[in-house]
Design goal:
Elements: H1 5-12, E1 18-22, H2 23-30, H3 55-62, E2 65-69, E3 75-80
Helix pairs in contact: 1-3
Length: 95
């Protein structure tokens, strides 16, 4: 089991498009404390950086969410990723 799988599994069960969790709530779900770097917005960034391993991003991404640290707090907003309707596939930029 990967380190943040319990968070991923919790998020997969969510029905809400957007909700917040405190660091304490996240820590209870994963079974240990978040690193000090979790207080930085970069730790919650939703984009992958080449040559870097961010297992926490994989957890909420696989659950279909983006994560955003709420400024000045120990809370995180999870928002379901937008996906195109099934009958409207993404448009290609190819010419």
């Amino acid at each position: 089991m990967a380190r943040y799988d319990p968070l991923r599994d919790c998020l997969r069960k969510q029905k809400l498009a957007e909700f917040e969790l405190s660091f304490a709530e996240i820590e209870r779900k994963i079974g240990y404390m978040l690193p000090n770097s979790a207080s930085q917005p970069q730790w919650w960034a939703n984009t992958a950086v080449p040559d870097k391993r961010y297992v926490q991003r994989k957890a909420w991404g696989e659950a279909g969410y983006d994560a955003y640290l709420i400024a000045g707090s120990d809370r995180v907003r999870f928002s379901r990723k937008a996906s195109p309707p099934a009958d409207h596939p993404p448009k290609s930029n190819a010419i």
